[in-house]
C-alpha cells in the first residue's frame, strides 16, 4: 500500500459574499477531488489543540501524528534542521522575517505592510541577511539565510522566556503596540530598529522600489524555540516516508522525524510554485524508488490568505487539484498499485483575517478500490461538517489514515 498526503496549507476559509457565500475551497474547480469524493471518507479534524499556537508548526506536527502538546519546540529550530544549521543544546533559535514597514520617521509608529516583502527572492534576501549578519551578528548571535523572506537567528545561551508576535498577525497595524517583552526583549527590539537603518536604502531595496516592488526594509524576530527531538516516523508508523515542500519548517519537521526531504528546483512556497516538479518527485519516490509514504506540502493557499488575494487562493487550490493530485493518481492507477490519499489543510487562513485560526479543517481519505460511500459527497468545509465524522485529537488522524 502506498500512502499520499496532500497538505493544502491554509486552504480552509470562511464563506465569502462575492463567491455566493461559499468558501474558496467550495468555489474552486476541483475536478479530480470531485471524482474521488464519493469514494472517500470526509469529515473535520482539530489539528491545533486548545492552548497551542495557531501556526503551521503545531498544525503540521499534528497532521504527521505528533501531538504538539508533547513535541512542540518552536518553529524556528525545525527550520534550522532544514537549513542544515547545527544546534547546540544551549542554542535558542528565532524566525527572522524580512518585512516591509511604512516610512514613518519613528520606528514605533511604522506599520507592517507586508510580512513577506512581496515574497522577496531568495537571492535578494541572501544579500540582505548577509548585511544584517555583518553588522548585528557576533559570536553569540548568528543570522542565517533561508528561503525568500524566511530566515534564522541562532542565539547561544538565549532564552525562550520572551513574548514575540508573528508579523502576519499584525498586518496593517502599528508595530509599537507589539514590541517584544520578557528576557532579552530590549536587545531583540534594538536589532529590529537597527535593521531598518541597514536595509531601508540598501541597493537591493532601491532596485526593488524601481521595479515597483516593496522593499524588505526591516527584520522581524519571532518564533523562538529550542533544539527539537522527535520520535522517528518510521519507528512510529513502519513506513518509509518523505516530505516534499518549499518551506524550511515542513522540511525541518520531516528531517527531525527521520524522513527524507526531497528538494524540488523551482519550488517557491507560493501560488506559482513548481507543481509538476513536486508531483514528479512524489511519483518517483513512490514508484521508481518503491517507498511507502509521501507528504506533499503546498504553501500557496496560505500565502494568498495572508495577502488577501482571493483570486489567487482559488487558483492555488485549482492548481493543486490539476497539477498535483491528478498526475499522482494517474501514475498510481497506471501501475495498478494499491494506495490511499489524504487531502487536508493544516489550518484555516481566512482572507478576511489574513492570519491563521484554530478552527477544525475538512479532511478527505480516499482508498483505491473503495465502493461508493456517498454519491453526494463533496470536499469542502460546509459538507464536511454535515457528515458527523469528527476527529478531536488531530495527531490521531495519521493513525486513522495509516491503519
Placed side by side, the strands forming the largest sheet appear as: 11-10-12-1-13-14-2-15
Helix content: 25-40%
Number of domains: 2
List low-pLDDT spans: none
The CATH homologous superfamily of the largest domain corresponds to: Alkaline Phosphatase, subunit A
CATH class of the largest domain equals: Alpha Beta
Compute the CA-based radius of gyration: 21 Å
Main β sheet profile: 8 strands, mixed
The sequence of SSEs as H and E is EHHEHHHEEHEEEEHHEHEHEHEHHEEHEH
Q: Tell me the number of helical segments per DSSP (H or I, 4 or more residues long).
A: 15
Which structural category fits the helices and strands? alpha/beta
Query: What name is given to the CATH topology of the largest domain?
Result: Alkaline Phosphatase, subunit A
Q: Would you kindly provide a written description of the structure presented here, covering whatever features stand out?
A:
By secondary structure, the protein is of the alpha/beta class. 35% of the residues lie in helices and 20% in strands. The protein has two domains: 2-73 and 229-402, Alkaline Phosphatase, subunit A (3-Layer(aba) Sandwich); 83-226, no CATH class. It has 15 helices and 15 strands. The longest helix is centred in the last third of the chain and has 25 residues, at 310-334.
